[in-house]
Write a structure and sequence with these properties.
By secondary structure, this protein is of the alpha+beta class. It is built from six helices and 13 strands.
Length: 286
């Protein structure tokens, strides 16, 4: 994993090999046996955006994680030009390693247009200053885990918000599962909508699947579960600033067949809804 925000930004600089063909590097060191899915997705976003006119911005992406990536070699991203319309542009990205496709993404881009505007209200939650650093939670498991956490996740500041809803509130909303995080980049990002979208895509894969394990009392790193992202969807409603605090309001409507489904709304600190995310993943009981 990237050990700093600088290294994460380096990962988002792809080498162009040919028209529509790019190569993405890996972190200098990796503790993982396979590439973090958020890294592949973020690099695919950069590859796709680099083939799109500058006046068109990412508004949705749909991803399938097909094979675990090898962290010891680069990843090649092949961008297919599906359509260039009057307002929308569509790209399909295939990520390859060892001659095999490990990942597919379809992304849609749109010119900026005025239109109808509404959104869900932001839930009442403690501020980031009153939330618990995820590093502190990991540290409770042991100093070794904390040192590993710092090496792998120092590019973001992540803080856990406890679920303070009453039973009546849970029943009235029908949302039995809630997992909330405040997050932001650990430093200032370049003034680039592409970089912010890619950094958001990167971090969006960190905790979402874990929400589907909350009602079962199992955490995502438990030796009693085999987790893996299967598919991932993001809808960007409004421009997102990843170097400012964002609330990741996650829930899980269903788990069955060794798969868990999680959805999330993402709010700025001022209550603006900037994105919606959904993911289904493997949560196989061991």
């Amino acid at each position: 994993m990237p050990a700093s925000l600088t290294e994460l930004l380096d990962l988002l600089e792809l080498e162009q090999l040919e028209v529509g063909l790019f190569r993405g590097r890996q972190p200098a060191e990796s503790m993982l046996k396979r590439v973090f899915g958020g890294q592949v997705a973020a690099q695919a976003v950069v590859a796709a955006q680099n083939t799109v006119p500058e006046d068109r911005h990412l508004h949705s992406l749909h991803i399938y994680f097909i094979l675990g990536g090898d962290p010891s070699i680069p990843i090649v991203y092949d961008v297919e030009n599906v359509r260039d319309g009057g307002s929308f542009t569509t790209r399909r990205v295939a990520a390859r390693q060892h001659g095999k496709i490990i990942f597919y993404m379809t992304a849609s881009f749109q010119v900026t247009e005025p239109g109808f505007d509404h959104q869900d209200p932001m839930p009442a939650v403690p501020s980031p200053d009153d939330a618990i650093g995820l590093g502190d939670i990991v540290k409770a498991r042991g100093e070794h885990y904390y040192e590993q956490w710092k090496r792998e996740w120092s590019s973001f500041d992540l803080r856990y918000v406890t679920d303070e809803r009453t039973e009546a509130e849970r029943e009235s909303t029908g949302r039995l599962v809630a997992q909330r995080l405040w997050f932001k980049a650990s430093g200032q990002l370049p003034d680039s909508r592409l970089i912010h979208n890619a950094a958001f895509t990167y971090i969006s894969d960190l905790s979402l699947l874990g929400a589907s394990l909350v009602p079962h009392g199992v955490y995502i790193g438990s030796p009693h579960v085999q987790p893996a992202s299967l598919d991932h969807v993001i809808w960007f409603h409004r421009p997102v600033a990843v170097d400012e605090w964002l609330l990741y309001d996650q829930s899980s409507p269903s788990a069955s067949g060794a798969r868990g489904l999680s959805t999330a709304r993402v709010f700025q600190a001022d209550g603006t809804l900037v994105a919606t995310v959904a993911q289904e993943g493997l949560i196989r009981r061991l």
